[in-house]
Amino acid sequence: VLLAMADVELIIAIEKDLWPKGVVRILGPLLRSLGDKHGHMIIAPNPARGHITVKGDKKKIEAVKPELRAIVQEHFPEAEMPDELMDDCQKEPEISSGSAPTEASADGTESAPSNQIASATYSSRDVL
Fold this sequence. Notes:
The chain is of the alpha+beta class. It is built from 2 helices and 6 strands, in the order βαββαβββ. The chain has a 4-stranded antiparallel sheet. Strands 4-5 form a two-stranded antiparallel sheet. Strand 2 (42-46) and strand 3 form a beta hairpin.
């Protein structure tokens, strides 16, 4: 009997123009080692598409994010930190158009509630 496991795929977008020449030779083994260290996850660079793909259990993906942030900072110094790797406390509040309630501040102006935080987008895949 084969059981289906739900793997999650996270795409970390980094602009193609910001990929230094030859970085894949360094990143490939580094990301593969990181994936093995965190329970045989798949972490692979794709410079042609301008992203790093991470596949595995959602909890493991969350656990590997701090190390991925350090790798992005080291190997892509000119790139902004991708939203997918930001901690909830590092993210800017997401302001919805029209549907979000607003809060009045001391000066009488309205602002979006401070508890609205963007989250990383995951897609589920069934793997046999």
